[in-house]
Amino acid sequence: MTYDILATDLLLLTPELMLAIGAMALLMLGVFIKKDETAAKWVSLLTIGLLVAAGAAALFLVPGAGGLAFSGAFVFDPFALFSKVAICGAAALALFLAGPYLKAERLARFEFSVLVALAVLGMAMMVSANDLISLYMGVELQSLALYVLAAFNRDSLRASEAGLKYFVLGALSSGLLLYGASLVYGFSGATGFDAIAAAVGDNPSVGLVFGLVFLICGLAFKVSAAPFHMWTPDVYEGAPTPVTAFFATAPKMAAMILLARLLYEPFGNAVDSWQQVIWVIAALSMAVGAFGALTQNNIKRLMAYSSIGNMGYALVAVAAASETGLWALLAFMILYMVGVIGAFGVILAMRTPEGMVEEVDDLSGLSQTRPGLAWSMTGIMFSIGGLPFLVGFFGKLFIFYAAVQAGLIWLVVIAALASVVAAAYYLRIVRVIWFNEPAHKFVAAPTPVGLVANLSGLATVLLVPLAAIVFMWARGASIGLI
Asked: Which of 31, 45, 191, 243 is surrounded by the most beta carbons within 10 Å?
């Protein structure tokens, strides 16, 4: 009987086991290949294959009904499996983009790919966490890998500063998270989500509410939500650009899904206790993201504030505290990642014979020098900004629908006003691309970079007829969680 239970648990953990064993095997492979550049190339290709295989395993190998593993520490339901597929796909694309950059900047080392695989392993644990201990394990495994990735360019003062800031503030957020978990354990007598839900009941104690607030604060740091966003612009600017592209996609998805699961499952009966906190964080994030980006000249810092604002929109869906809000959140995150990975593809293509450039004005006249990239960036900016009728518009539309359905009219008004303000800096980029005289002549973009940038630009338009499929998939994944 014990062996049957263990076999079932391991089957459910197939994606995580693949990532853990694969990362260790790739680490050994990299050590035994003598040349750094050769090792980096092969380990990167194999890691992309590993991430695709792990995503496929989550989609096909894990039993459709899912279940609990290791005495309920992990849960495998459609919500978690949907998220794992999205996380593995985003990480694979970020790694695909990274190869040419790392080679050109003489940063091609196999450890980069192994760190990405270990970070994704932590994210997979996060979205399946059904216990405060497994939650913390997943968050820390992801975070430790991301701290190293942020400072991967050891010879760059900016990268070292970014890594240090991220580490120090990340340690603070981990402390908040751990203190909140200890309070919840102390007042509920349990770490499992089901037992905590039973202890919360219909009237949670003050201690449980305090613990939940600390947990929310710790996870708000991970999604760059205001007022816990301080690290984001500096880390986005200082980290190597492929690392920034990775930060802006998969970790955001994992942390947002974990936050939604934490609020909807163990604290689902305490909506009145946490909904106001999420309202405030969502409104602050949208305001900071909208107004903070208006004065930015560095495009990576601008994308950082854009990320803060978009996480505010995602939190509006969480605040709706409904099944509609949950599937709107899933669909929004997928469509947002499609746009942002393409935006960083264009940023990675901003290379002159002298090296990389990162200022918004460096895109001047792109329509004349690189019309393909110009069209892609235009579509991506309009999509992330929510312009009708690109895919990003539908993501926001269903979030607003969920919020209106939940009676959060005033929050929808704030979100709509923030979208109008944010449109100014997206339109500024488009204006620079199409109406300014050329500032630089960029060198030809490497094939992976050009492919991702152009396909993402096309997807903002071509995915519109398929948006219904994305929403149906997201709706199926969210059934039964609330």
From this structure: 243
Q: Which of 380, 389, 387, 393 is nearest to 429 (CA)?
A: 380
Distance CA 127, CA 477 (A): 13
Name the pTM for this structure.
0.93
Residue type, 286: M
3-state SS assignment for residue 249: coil
Residue 356, beta-bridge partner list: 351
Residues with Cβ within 8 Å of 16's Cβ and at least 6 positions away in sequence, in order, are: 121, 124, 125, 128
pLDDT band at 177 (very low <50, low <70, confident <90, very high): very high
Contacts 24+ apart (CB under 8 A), 148-157: 148/115, 149/112, 149/115, 149/116, 149/119, 149/239, 149/243, 149/246, 150/235, 150/238, 150/239, 150/243, 150/247, 151/239, 152/107, 152/112, 152/115, 152/239, 152/240, 152/243, 153/105, 153/107, 153/240, 156/238
More reliable by pLDDT, 196 or 66: 196
The pLDDT score that the predictor gives to residue 481 is: 65
Question: What are the backbone dihedrals phi and psi of residue 213, each rounded to the nearest 5 degrees, phi first?
Answer: -60, -40
Residues 6+ apart with CB under 8 A from 57: 14, 15, 18
219 close to 255: Cβ distance less than 8 angstroms: yes
Task: Report the distance separating Cα 327 and Cα 405, nearest Å.
Answer: 14
- In eight-state DSSP terms, residue 59 is I
Largest CA distance in the chain: 73
Instruction: Compute the mean pLDDT over every residue in the chain, rounded to the nearest whole number.
Output: 88
Could you tell me how many residues make up the chain?
Answer: 482
- pLDDT exceeds cutoff 80 at 2: no
- For the cut 60, the answer to whether the pLDDT of residue 1 exceeds it is no
DSSP-derived secondary structure letter, 444: P
Q: What H or E segment, with its residue span, contains residue 226? A: none
R_g of the chain computed on alpha carbons: 21
Q: Categorize the per-residue pLDDT at 205 as very low, low, confident or very high, splitting at 50, 70 and 90.
A: confident
With DSSP H G I counted as helix, E B as strand and the rest as coil, what are the percentages for the chain, rounded to 5?
80, 5, 20
